[in-house]
Recover the amino acids of this structure.
């Protein structure tokens, strides 16, 4: 019986059925859960980005896990994604001591070192200019990085609400790798280039004409904004209202990554990896919630989707 349960849990992990793992284990009384079951539960909670709950589970078996490199690794991962870098560093160092030279562990330690160095540098006040030529006003707190590529210079509509909800801080290659690991999908190169210039936001062109009518009778779809690569803003890929949130709350098919939300509640634009696999070039689709989450293909790739966006007055029904 127990061997069957272990086999089932391992298969569910392989299929990314993390909610089912949580539900299966939580149906078992807490007093009957051994170290292995708690480890499965904590791992699944990590994959669902419920890191506080994962830490609580791991700590309940801390005595048994103290000599287990994987226990320390999973604790470190949860602390890392909660931005608790010092605690994460200690766990990854213990994991490395117990199982030396594991590539994933060493990579996390490198990321933590990079982040803590950056935070230290940012905490040191900059030397003032001894003879400023002019007095300038301070930059607004949420102003995004200026766009340097002329192709995108007129693309974004940086309203106050867009900056608050969508626009994340400039993204690094390390953060991109971290987000891709959390999503379990490799983001398109064109999307990454766009986000490196302006990490999420609301475009001026929000309509995309399509060759069929939606459930609302329109011959176009409308987007609200693009999710940036990050966790900080509510509407970023791994934010509180990001891709995983929308997939779970609106029962979307588990086929990829949500990159845009829409004014119609529950509708979304997604990257669909079914034709290419998780590391390939995804097609772009629209999820029509009112039509039972009907999938409507929009474009063969992300660049084609961007090029097809038009202003509201340019779309015709």
């Amino acid at each position: 019986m127990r061997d069957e349960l272990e086999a089932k849990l391992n298969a569910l992990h392989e299929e990314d059925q993390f909610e089912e793992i949580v539900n299966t284990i939580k149906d078992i009384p807490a007093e009957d859960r051994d170290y292995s079951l708690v480890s499965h539960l904590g791992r699944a909670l990590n994959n669902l980005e419920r890191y506080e709950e994962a830490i609580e589970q791991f700590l309940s078996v801390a005595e048994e896990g103290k000599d287990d490199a994987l226990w320390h690794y999973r604790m470190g991962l949860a602390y890392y994604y909660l931005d608790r870098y010092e605690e994460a560093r200690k766990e990854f160092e213990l994991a490395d001591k117990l199982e030396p030279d594991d590539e994933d562990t060493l990579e996390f330690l490198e990321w933590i070192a990079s982040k803590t160095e950056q935070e230290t540098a940012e905490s040191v006040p900059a030397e003032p200019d001894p003879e400023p030529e002019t007095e300038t006003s301070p930059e607004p707190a949420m102003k995004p990085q200026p766009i340097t590529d002329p192709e995108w210079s007129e693309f974004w509509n940086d309203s106050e609400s867009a900056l608050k909800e969508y626009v994340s801080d400039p993204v690094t290659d390390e953060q991109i790798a971290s987000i891709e690991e959390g999503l379990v999908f490799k983001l398109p190169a064109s999307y990454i280039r766009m986000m490196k210039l302006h990490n999420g936001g609301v475009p001026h062109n929000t309509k995309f004409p399509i060759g069929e009518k939606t459930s609302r009778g329109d011959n176009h779809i409308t987007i609200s904004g693009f999710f940036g690569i990050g966790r900080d803003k509510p509407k970023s890929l791994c934010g509180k209202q990001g891709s995983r949130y929308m997939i779970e709350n609106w029962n979307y098919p588990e086929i990829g990554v949500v990159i845009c939300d829409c004014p119609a509640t529950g509708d979304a634009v997604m990257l669909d990896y079914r034709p290419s696999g998780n590391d390939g070039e995804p097609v772009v689709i629209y999820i029509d919630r009112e039509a039972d989450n009907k999938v409507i293909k929009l474009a063969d790739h992300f660049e084609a989707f961007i090029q097809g966006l038009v202003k509201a007055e340019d779309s015709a029904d």
Observations:
- The longest strand covers residues 256-261.
- Strands lie at 207-209, 220-222, 225-226, 256-261, 268-272, 283-288, 294-299.
- The first helix runs from residue 2 to 14.
